[in-house]
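fyi for ur records
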Amino acid sequence: MKALFRCDATEAIGFGHLSRCMALAEALEASSVVCRLAGQFDENAKRKIIEAGFELTALDTPLDPKASSSEIASTMDANAFDFVVLDSYRADDGYLASFAALEPALVVIDDFRLLSDYTCDAVLNFTWEAPELSYPSGPALLLGPQFLLVRRRLVEQRALSVARDRAGAARKLLVLIGGADPKNLALRLARVLSANHKDLCLRIIAEDGPEIDSLIAQFAPGSAVVPRQPDISDQFLWADVAITGGGLIKYESAYMAVPVAAIAQNEGQDRETRVFSRAGLAHDLGLADAVTDADLTASLDRFLGDASLRRAMASRMRDAFVADPSANAAQTLLEAIER
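which gave:
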């Protein structure tokens, strides 16, 4: 079988869509599905795709629902693929409907249940609240964290991370906002943390620069700015606790049973992070554009100072996910398509 993934990944768009598409593609390739990724990709994204060994079609522009017919024609021979996986917040009901006359099955990776019709063959939404959302009848529904899309290396390292004793004081703190940090939250968090937590060994996955380098130097020996990297499993294994953005990265931290505080970069992430927090899987730091530094400092002090909160969170995380949710998603998806 052959599958085409349509997503975009740039600093402006972010890399979460690409990361979860690659996670599903890895799991599908284990079942002998040949996968190609098509989209607007910056050089960093292209490198990730090539290093992972996937076929690549680079487009000049991100997904445009107004040009759905021409875009679909330019990326896909209707007979070349058995199914298409679509992952983009730009896709609307009209874009999905453009696939109706084509031969390949259509799979939509979704988050917020914002569309009306979902004219497709399957919907995959791994968010915590997905089973409670009222999707229309018709497509096969893969809903909930048992279908979480995580890269293969995280799956391989999860048992080691889950077994790590993180019950004591938080001494090693990992800050990773995600594949992109358009609001420069890594720098902001380093500045806030320097007020009360210079005793921590701090690793920040970000682009280095004079200001963040100067801040990092104030923390415990071993603190560093770590370049962005395709495999963050070793960083999760190292960490006692993490601070992340409000997207896929907080799920990855929870999957690895690393107690996490999440700061949302947009309103959609903010709403979904509140649900995640109520489930006991994260400490909600709020919406970046709305939370003040004073409130952020107080919230981080509570999180980093409360060992019982983090212990309960880690326990909840261990039980919340199946061992290999990406493989579960791939197998269930193939069964749905082949019916």
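Residues 187 and 211 are 8 Å apart (CA to CA). thats all i got for now
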